[in-house]
Amino acid sequence: MKRQPDIFDVRVCVTAQHREMLDQALEIFSMKPDYDLNLMRQPDIGDFHTRFEESSKLSDSKPSILMFAPSCLPATGAEATVNAKLALAMHTAGWKIDVITRWPRNQYYPSGTGGVWAALSDVVHSVRAGVTSSESGIRLDMVLSFFRVGYLVPDNMWVRQAVRLGRRLCRSNNYDVILSRALPSAAHLPALYCSREFAIPWIANWNDPEFCPPPYTLGKSRVLNFFKRRLLERVSVSADWQTFPCERLRRYVASLLSVAINGKSSVIPHVLLPGLSHVAPDGACRKTFRLVHAGGCEQPRDPYPFLLGVKRFITKCGVAGSISVTFIGNQSAGFEELVQRLGLTDVVKTMGPMAYEDVQRLTRDCDVLVIIEAPCREGIFFPSKFVDYVQTGNPILAVSPATGTLADVLLAHGGGIAVDCGSADAIAHALARMHTEWARGTLHETYGSDRLAGLFDQERVLKMYLEIIGRLGESR
């Protein structure tokens, strides 16, 4: 049961009424009880209550963490944001944490290290990797770094520098565990080397798989794909534990491997930041039913079925002039032409990329938040945007694969509606249901995503990590 922390929360309490027999059994099965009441040592009832209360207190352990996350602060993309949120949750809980990240890197929206991220300024260490704009220069850097780190990945230059810094930090700090956060998968390499050299337990995380299912592609380079698969196998063998944000992703990655990971992997969801949580009131008094999609909607995500569903909803329900749809971030080529062709220019507007906190403020002040996923056969992903939406408490419309993670969550717990990303009619029907509740003033009562907050609560997520860290510490 303890090997399935995502399913069971196990605590072992012993009374020790047969001390010698108990100790023999514990030794044979290599067990360590969480609570040892030791009743027969002192049969005084007052002493029993005292020892029970002391044993029942939850551990206030504050572990020391070294995290390798090439994407972190500044929070310039979804991967960086989800890693920064976890680091901030650990830091504000009193955990000792050092984060080794990369700079510069791809920037999808304006960077920022102030505001909610200011508390991390002293714990995030940026490694400046050599950057060259030419394709031949990138290839040369990869080949030269290959002879030093043993793997051919685009971030080998960063890996070399991150290993050096990681070694210095490991020599001066007594870390309880090393975390590595992918993507990119290069995050795992410095963790692998430092874990092996300093005998520190290592937890490897995959927010996204290195090899995505269609309609995503594996990439053009067979050589690069060979080394990526080699790295994936090495991580699965060498890491003490692996974590995934959802069960479908865990099963998918396991299917790619020649080694079994079920015995040393678990699901830990993305974390919610309490300071950003906000539940907006129902908007029946508003004249406009407002929908917002935060983040880019580029290939292989297809906005056409959603926009067509919006068009059919407007036509069927006669709500032209009282609905608005806002897209924040970079959109696919031809997006504006598609909007014009569907006659939605008065309904749909776009806004450029915005900083994370600005997006959070804007998404609070709307009625429905939209997620558009790629039309995969199975939705194995768990977009971090979903938890960002839950922080607002607003209802969520997940335009996603009919079989997938978001459909699982919303069907089991509520908080919105999941519809097939390929069915414009299903999208129009879902919009009609939400609009009806909005008009009645019961939208949040019926579909509010605040009911999902407990799934991603900071205390719950950190408790999952504590369970794993404690188990790895005992096994070392």
> What is the terminal-to-terminal distance?
20 Å
Low-confidence stretches: 41-59
| Helix coverage percent | 40-55%
Beta content? 5-15%
Q: Kindly report the average pLDDT value.
A: 84
Q: Treating each run of at least 4 consecutive H or I residues as one helix, how many helices?
A: 16
Strand order of the largest sheet: 5-4-3-6-7-8-9
Number of extended strands: 15
Shape: globular
> Roughly how many Å is the radius of gyration?
25 Å
Overall SS class? alpha/beta
Instruction: Profile the largest sheet.
Output: 7 strands, parallel
What does this structure look like?
- There is one protein chain.
- The chain has 476 residues and is α/β, with parallel strands linked by helices.
- The protein has 16 helices and 15 strands.
- It has helices spanning 19-28, 45-56, 78-92, 135-149, 156-172, 188-198, 222-238, 247-256, 304-317, 335-341, 356-364, 384-390, 405-413, 424-440, 443-447, 458-475; strands at residues 13-14, 35-36, 64-68, 96-103, 124-128, 177-182, 202-206, 241-244, 265-267, 289-294, 323-328, 348-351, 368-372, 396-400, 416-420.
- A seven-stranded parallel sheet has the order 5-4-3-6-7-8-9, with helices on both faces. It has a six-stranded parallel sheet with strand order 12-11-10-13-14-15, with helices on both faces.
- Helix 3 (78-92) links the parallel strand 3 and strand 4 (96-103).
- Helix 4 (135-149) crosses helix 5 (156-172) and helix 5 (156-172) packs parallel to helix 6.
- The longest helix has 18 residues, at 458-475.
- The chain is globular.
- It starts with 12 loop residues before the first strand and ends with a helix.
- The model is unreliable at 41-59 (pLDDT under 50).
